[in-house]
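Predict the 3D structure for this chain.
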Amino acid sequence: MPDDELLERLQHFHHNAFPQYRAQFQALVQDGQHPTTLFIGCSDSRLLPYLLTGAGPGELFLVRNVGAFVPPYDGSHGHHGTTAAIEYATLTLNVQRIVVCGHSHCGAVQALYQGVPDEAVNLHRWLDLGRQAVLPMQPCPEVLRRTEQRAVVLQLERLLDYPMVRQRVQQGRLTLHGWHYVIEEGQVYVFDVASGGFIAASLAEHSGTMPCPPYPPYVEHDGQIPAV
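Done. Predicted structure below.
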């Protein structure tokens, strides 16, 4: 029989990795989970939230989807995992912060310019959540980078349309953070509301904490104020 790599990895976890965290997992079962952060990130395999933040078991409540997009809060009752996760994280888990993390070389952003196969009808509709961030330019590395960052800001704005999110932000019980992770640099750029742009975390004074609304507009590095 061919080697079963996944089985080998499961066995390695059980025998080698799990014993290091046994007590933590047992406590998380007995006491329940109490994550402090809802992390909304792209499904891209190169984005590793636990490695990026240094978080351990029970610290992050994770939502992964194509593009790290946030659906609008429209009061509909359709099936939507991201919306349900936002409600659960805020109303039940009482997280203290929500991070929206986009990244460089994002396939979702590239697809906004290049399109997707005709068979990908659900993906095409999902990408509508990022189309407001698209620039009226031919895609190039700079345009794609700017679009990735614009998309992060767009999702933060959508989050504030969720009543339970906006209320907690206004009460000072919840903070919102916009991140853009540049894979090849190992650098996260955090959205700074005061300057209206993204700042390298290695130079920043905060992790992208957004104060209570209203907010100044997001300003491109060349001074443009996009209609997002």
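The longest helix spans residues 5-31.
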